[in-house]
Structure formats: C-alpha cells, structure tokens
Specification:
The chain is α+β, with helices and mostly antiparallel strands. It has five helices and 14 strands. The strands form four sheets. Strands 7, 8, 9, 10, 11 and 12 form a six-stranded antiparallel beta sheet that branches. Strands 3-4-5 form a three-stranded antiparallel beta sheet. A three-stranded mixed beta sheet has the order 6-14-13. A hairpin with a 5-residue loop joins strand 13 and strand 14.
Length: about 260
C-alpha cells in the first residue's frame, strides 16, 4: 500500500540475526532467524471522522451530533422510514426514503430497538491495548505463542502494544481486562526480556470493538473474516457490517451503488 502513495521503498529483507539486532538491539536473539522492514502510515482517526462529516455537510447532508436513536419503523402506506431520536433532551422524529444503519458495534442494538432483530448480524470482538514509554526505535509486528499477531506501534514518546481478542456483547461497557494486560506484557517479555515492563509502567490502556460480520458457521474470533458486508433487513434497511477505517470509502460507494 505504501507504494501506491508515492513511497517507492519496497520491503527490505533482513537476512540473519545480526541484521535484525543491528536495528533492534534489545530484541531477544533466541530463535531469531531474520526480519522484514516495511513502511506504513499513521492517520488521525478522530480528525478523519470530522473531515468526513464536514465534507458531507458541504454536500448537503445534515449532521446531528449527540443524537440517540430510540427506534425506527417503516410506514407501509407512505413507504417512508420514521426515525425517533433523543437530541439534547428533546425527542424528534426524522423521515427518510432510505435508511442506512452504519453504527458499527451498535448495529444489532439499533436493530433490536426497532424490533427487527431475530438473530445477530455481528460478532463483537473486543481488542485491548496498553501504552508505555517508548522502548524501541522501530515499531514491530510479532507473533504470540497462541499464533496470534500482536504489535508495538511507536506514537511519539509512547509505544502502543496490542491487541487481544474476546467476544464482548455490549460495546458500551467494553474495557481492558487484567488478564488481557497480563497477556500483552507476557508476550512482550518473550521478545524484549530486558525491558521488564510491569503494570506500573502502563501509561494508559483502552479497548475497542471490531464489529465483525457474523459468519454462517461458528468460528473463533481469530478466524472470522475482516471483510465488510452489507445486509438488507426485512423492511429494506441497509445494514453495513465490519467496515474498517482503511476501507470506509469503498464500503460507502457499495452502499450508494
């Protein structure tokens, strides 16, 4: 992907232990066979959301922040959706010919409010992260003992370590669990034994939900596809599932099409 943005640097293969340790000297040399250097990008996700909202308003949309959807229903006579919203302690009703439910981890909660939910569309998989004082010059992608990928991403003076996977049904109550923090620190110690991080070294911790589209057959969270899906409800509501930040424009185009 970096090549598509004008960065002509291809992956750089580090053959052998010495080549890797030259860049990351505090990495555990045990069983270290080599590495690959890749280039990636960081984005300000909060600013990106605000810019999308701003451009939508410029194109004629109305944006209502802090608006809680109470329910929605479809009027068969008028063929219009009515969406009831609580906004600044005031109840309001909006009408629309088409309705798109792009509420991320809250997709099934919104469907339940409308009485539409008979089965879950999502598998809400929580992922937790911790941030500590920066301890390596390079961000790294590593493999845990359970075969999961985890990472250390440098953000200014901090290193962000993640992530974990567990099903969390309520996105409003998600938070890092002690065992998740312990998992990340233990896996990190395997690769950086001399860093010796403990819970006292954690500067912050957080959790988020991956709203993964529920597969037809049961799978472990790790095996569920990260591709987004679009499903149509019984009254024609368009439910958008599992969209990632990097894929939001393609998903939006598919919805419009």
């Amino acid at each position: 992907l970096a090549l598509l943005t004008g960065n002509r640097k291809g992956p750089r293969v580090l053959a052998g232990q010495k080549a890797v340790l030259k860049l990351i000297p505090n990495l555990n040399p045990k069983d270290l066979a080599g590495g690959v250097v890749i280039w990636d990008h960081i984005t300000d996700d909060e600013r990106l959301v605000k810019e999308i909202m701003r451009s939508a308003v410029q194109a004629g949309a109305q944006a209502h922040e802090h608006a809680v959807v109470l329910d929605y229903h479809y009027n068969l006579n008028t063929k219009i959706y009515e969406i009831n919203v609580k906004q600044n302690e005031t109840s309001r009703t909006y009408q629309a010919r088409k309705l798109v439910n792009a509420t991320g981890p809250w997709v099934d909660k919104i469907r339940a409010k409308a009485g539409e939910k008979t089965e879950d569309f999502l598998v809400p998989v929580a992922g937790s992260h911790v941030e500590v004082k920066k301890f390596t010059d390079y961000s790294v992608i590593l493999r845990a003992q359970d075969e999961r990928i985890f990472f250390v991403i440098n953000l200014g003076p901090r290193s962000r370590i993640g992530t974990t996977e567990r099903v969390c049904k309520d996105p409003d109550t998600v938070k890092p669990l002690d065992e998740e923090v312990e998992y990340l620190l233990c896996e990190l110690e395997r690769y950086f034994p001399n860093v010796r991080l403990s819970s006292e070294d954690i500067l912050s911790k957080d959790s988020g939900i991956r709203p993964l589209a529920k597969p037809k057959e049961a799978q472990t969270p790790h095996d569920i596809s990260r591709e987004h899906e679009i499903r149509i409800g019984p009254t024609g509501v368009i439910h958008v599932l599992g969209v990632k930040l990097t894929d939001h424009r393609r998903a939006a185009k598919e919805v419009i099409d």
